[in-house]
């Protein structure tokens, strides 16, 4: 009887210990986690974290909470992935996901379809609430588009939907939703604590009214939040707009405005000029303003100490993108300035090749043939493939 009594105690202690466990995170490849999810017919919970993230570390006691463990262990197959691992990067790329901050909670069905995403406050109740939302077909992230199309427009919903759009790299939706969010608010509230968070985490477009208000009223924002945080937020929005697909279509006037705004927030003038140089030049190309493109680049070169690779880059850019040959004399001058500073026959061969292209575009056939022949000679010395050289000479004749 004593043996039986001891066994009962051991079983009871084992059950009690299991019940008191926190979230049981599976280790191993994500493929095995999804295999287990399909076998158990459970969805997958993934915490994206970093070992160096102090916020992530602060969630460890929360995930060890017995209530959190009981909820997640009974309903999900759980795992955690380090943002720095190659497998995690590949998984996020495959699913077109962006991680704006850590930790990020992701919920998938067994087939690998994302059901829900969340960035949580660090409480047991909040973490459980996100799990409950993930299991609710009408409330989880995958239902947001339908709710939006049905007319839902509360502030909290628009914020959550815009964050989902960021995570899923749907910039078009993010911009549209954030414009609607801004339209719901009076400009006098744009510097509220909530809208400051919105500016920090969700605004991606310089045309959003919240950003336009901030850039036009920097002093009160600096007073409320500090100069460096305001500079960082504004810089992020300006640069994300400039180097986006829509930024690729900005007119030069808008790019110049962005350059001025970068300086307005405290970015050094030369740095601001460097960042906007290529977008501005490409904008001139798109509108056939070749002279302005050449002038902008020429001014930049005059103020910089260009290396041979930098000269090659800009000369190739003009040779391939310039809409007409009016820039040819200026580009030829760049090439002739770069050739003496080239450190190897290979670099000189490249420069003479581009110089020949400049002369060809400008209608200077004799000069082009001479430069092309020089490029071929140097390519042979450098033991380069000369197919492009022979092709160039054929075009010149």
Explain this structure to me?
With 397 residues, this protein is an alpha/beta fold. Helices cover 64% and strands 6% of the residues. The protein contains 22 helices and 5 strands. It has a 5-stranded mixed β-sheet, with helices on both faces. Helix 9 packs antiparallel against helix 10. The longest helix is centred in the N-terminal third of the chain and has 18 residues. It is elongated. 33% of the residues are buried.
- Seen as an oligomer or otherwise, the chain set is single chain
Which strand order do you get reading across the main beta sheet? 1-3-2-4-5
Number of helices: 22
Instruction: Please compute the radius of gyration using only Cα atoms.
Output: 30 Å
Shape: elongated
* Main pleated sheet: 5 strands, mixed
Q: What's the total count of β strands? A: 5
Please estimate the helix content. Answer: 55-70%
Mean pLDDT: 94
Pick out the low-confidence regions: 1-19
The end-to-end span amounts to: 107 Å
- What share of the residues does DSSP label as strand, in percent? 5-15%
**Structural class, from secondary structure content?**
alpha/beta
N-to-C order of helices and strands: HEHEHHHEHEEHHHHHHHHHHHHHHHH
Which features does this protein show?
single chain, 397 residues, alpha/beta, five-stranded mixed beta sheet, 6% strand
Short overview:
The protein is of the alpha/beta class and 397 residues long.
Write the layout of secondary structure elements.
Elements: H1 2-19, E1 25-26, H2 30-40, E2 44-49, H3 54-58, H4 60-63, H5 66-75, E3 77-82, H6 86-94, E4 104-108, E5 114-118, H7 124-134, H8 144-149, H9 155-167, H10 171-183, H11 193-201, H12 209-216, H13 218-225, H14 227-242, H15 252-264, H16 269-286, H17 290-302, H18 308-321, H19 328-338, H20 345-361, H21 365-381, H22 387-396
Parallel strand pairs: 1-3, 2-3
Antiparallel strand pairs: 2-4, 4-5
Helix pairs in contact: 5-7, 9-10, 13-14, 14-15, 15-16, 16-17, 18-19, 18-20, 19-20, 20-21, 21-22
């Amino acid at each position: 009887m004593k043996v039986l009594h001891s066994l009962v105690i051991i079983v009871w202690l084992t059950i009690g210990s299991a019940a008191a466990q926190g979230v049981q995170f599976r280790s191993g490849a994500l493929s095995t986690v999804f295999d287990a999810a399909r076998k158990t017919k459970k969805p997958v919970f993934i915490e994206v974290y970093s070992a160096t993230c102090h916020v992530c570390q602060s969630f460890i006691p929360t995930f060890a909470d017995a209530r959190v463990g009981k909820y997640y262990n009974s309903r999900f197959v759980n795992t955690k992935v380090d943002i720095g691992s190659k497998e995690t990067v590949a998984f996020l790329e495959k699913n077109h996901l962006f991680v704006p901050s850590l930790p990020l909670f992701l919920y998938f069905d067994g087939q690998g379809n994302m059901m829900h995403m969340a960035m949580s406050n660090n409480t047991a109740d909040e973490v459980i609430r996100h799990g409950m939302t993930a299991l609710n077909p009408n409330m989880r992230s995958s239902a947001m588009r339908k709710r939006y199309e049905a007319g839902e427009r509360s502030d909290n919903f628009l914020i959550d939907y815009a964050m989902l759009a960021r995570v899923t790299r749907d910039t078009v939706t993010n911009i549209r939703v954030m414009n609607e969010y801004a339209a719901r608010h009076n400009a006098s509230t744009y510097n509220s604590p909530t809208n400051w968070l919105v500016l920090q985490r969700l605004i991606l477009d310089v045309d959003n009214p919240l950003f336009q208000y901030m850039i036009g009223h920097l002093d009160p924002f600096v007073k409320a939040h500090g100069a460096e945080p305001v500079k960082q937020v504004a810089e992020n929005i300006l640069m994300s707009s400039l180097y986006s697909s829509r930024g690729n279509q900005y007119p030069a006037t808008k790019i110049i405005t962005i350059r001025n705004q970068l300086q307005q927030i405290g970015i050094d003038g030369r740095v601001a000029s460097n960042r906007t140089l290529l977008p501005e030049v490409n904008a001139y190309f798109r509108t056939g303003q070749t002279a302005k493109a050449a002038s902008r680049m020429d001014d930049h070169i005059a103020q910089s100490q260009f290396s041979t690779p930098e000269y090659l880059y800009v000369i190739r850019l003009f040779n391939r993108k310039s809409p007409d040959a009016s820039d040819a004399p200026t580009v030829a001058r760049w090439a002739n300035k770069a050739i003496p500073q080239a450190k190897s026959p290979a670099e000189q061969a490249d420069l003479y090749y581009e110089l020949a292209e400049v002369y060809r575009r400008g209608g200077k056939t004799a000069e082009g043939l001479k430069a092309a022949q020089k490029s071929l000679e140097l390519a042979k010395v450098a033991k380069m493939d000369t197919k492009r050289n022979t092709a160039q000479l054929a075009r010149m004749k």
